[in-house]
């Protein structure tokens, strides 16, 4: 079982998983069923937790295990469960037509991935020769792409719940950048950030359900009263 | 110890309000807590002036003159808002605002008030934490905390429009803050390569500032852009300002005043901390150009909206966009004068802005509208105190002499001309004059004019006291700045300029 100690092997597994994360993100762009979007997010978070676990294993950085565990329990478990319950309760299954149709959205997502690779180029430091230290550096492009595509999803979608999902996948991009660039921020910071994300989602959930009560739909484009 | 006390007092006030049974207990707890907080903040200021930076727990909390100034301003705003809130919510309760809503139909509206009186101290707690946290990650968490605590305050009345405002606020704020987090992360990365530290201290500002010269330059450049966009969203800098008018016009007036005079400072405080790192790493030019661009853009965006504004509470929001633009511009002009001008402006703005909100709130509660056409004019006859104070605050906030904002705007202007930015400085004057005239026309039409025979109102001592109290502070500061306060401002400017 010597390949378990080989950083080269870890690097390949991480790259594979990061690619899967990116594919899922692009799939989510074209997805119109709310429940499927939520499940895609859950799988994506699970993969991120796995990446964090692998980086922690090869770098012997025990505090990343905690981050991995938090991601697994909160983002891959608790949040999708809560969001699915919300969807069942408010009885909305499908997203209405987004502003830009699905094929074009996927094309734009592809372009954003390219942008991610271009931006990540400037962070590439070939003088870092040790494989162990460079572990996961090539996932930065994926992280930036996730961030940008999440941003695009928020602009493109009109349901309150899909906007929340966009925000969450944007946060996933941040998390991937954090663990791939710096093996995670200091632990206290990570705990704080996770706490904040959780509370933010709770607030957004309350808002979503109240918007539903007040407007009988979650269509954000109906929020048009406050204008100049 | 004093740092810990500053954080514990608001937390305790929040808990106490949660368990309070009656309205009067909540009011007393709220006002008392913020009064204690103001005393503690003043004590912190004195301590910093006497003995330099104060720190606790291995520099986990760290307060220099810059932090002490922001804490002092935050607690001042919190105190005057809590005094005003007593009168404001009593008026709401008398007029049955809480009983009209079916979900709020409860005896004496205590649960609804409990929501306000337990959330505001939490809100203030996060603002104080912003200033005291040394770790840039904790700083981010605290700024996110201000958003979370205030979202519920924005949707306090539960109207359709307040939901819309809260939604916009939460989503735009969330996206902005995730950009700021990315920026913080990249800062950590660029420092991480230089410092090679994996410990908690690797994000401590007091350590980073000494090593900023060795940071990775391209990374730092991207980091500053993200930070400017992120914290700029919280400060309401154009083009990320769109949540502001909605949130300010839908939140209860005391909460809106705290957003305008408190959160604005906290967001700019975060920006300044990163500005110091960036200008030490890359030289001042890169950050300055960006700051000047966004500052002038914010002022320019505010002008047309103030000139044609129909709603006086939205107008206040555009004024706050304008003022955050002025402060960012001052930081961009840089030099000792520009930075000093920015902190003078921050101080005077935080003192002046609450009065404007209080007067607008009094008018709105009296007329039951916040639109100029419906309120008509001649309000000074039925509301002599608020009307008069509104006029005075308008002159003060638009920077007319003898009020103190004139002094700070003049300092910024001198910094602009001194730095050779002639065209920009002239543009700055043009925007200021346009906003001054727009404000003065609208407010004088609202306040002055023939008597419309409305019955005189204004019998609430709490409202009167807060209006008169803040007005007195504004007048006094216009002619005389207490020497310790000025030394604190000077100290904050020195930190930015010399990085110490």
Give your account of this protein's structure.
The complex is a heterodimer of chains A (228) and B (500). Chain A has 228 residues and is mostly helical. Chain A has one domain. Helices cover 74% and strands 0% of the residues of chain A. Chain A is built from seven helices and no strands. Chain A is globular and about 55 Å long. Chain B is mainly alpha-helical. Chain B has one domain. Chain B is 80% helix and 1% strand. Chain B has helices at 2-19, 23-51, 65-94, 97-100, 110-132, 136-154, 160-195, 205-211, 217-235, 243-250, 253-282, 284-307, 312-333, 335-367, 372-375, 379-382, 384-397, 404-418, 422-447, 461-479, 483-498; strands at 54-56, 61-63. Chain B has a two-stranded antiparallel ribbon with strand order 1-2. The longest helix of chain B is centred in the middle third of the chain and has 36 residues, at 160-195. Chain B is globular. The two termini of chain B are 23 Å apart. In chain B, 60% of the residues are buried. Classes of the chains: A mainly alpha (228), B mainly alpha (500). At the A-B interface, α5, α6 and α7 of A face α6, α7, α9 and α10 of B.
Short description:
The complex is a heterodimer of chains A (228) and B (500). Chain A is mainly α.
Mean pLDDT of chain A: 77
Q: Mean pLDDT of chain B, nearest integer?
A: 86
What structural category arises from helix and sheet content of chain B? mainly alpha
As for the number of domains of chain A, it is: 1
**What gap, in angstroms, lies between the N and C termini of chain A?**
67 Å
Largest sheet of chain A: none
Q: Strands, helices and their partners?
A:
The complex is a heterodimer of chains A (228) and B (500).
Chain A lengths: L6 H24 L3 H26 L2 H29 L11 H20 L18 H17 L3 H23 L4 H29 L13
Chain B lengths: L1 H18 L3 H29 L2 E3 L4 E3 L1 H30 L2 H4 L9 H23 L3 H19 L5 H36 L9 H7 L5 H19 L7 H8 L2 H30 L1 H24 L4 H22 L1 H33 L4 H4 L3 H4 L1 H14 L6 H15 L3 H26 L13 H19 L3 H16 L2
Antiparallel strand pairs in B: 1-2
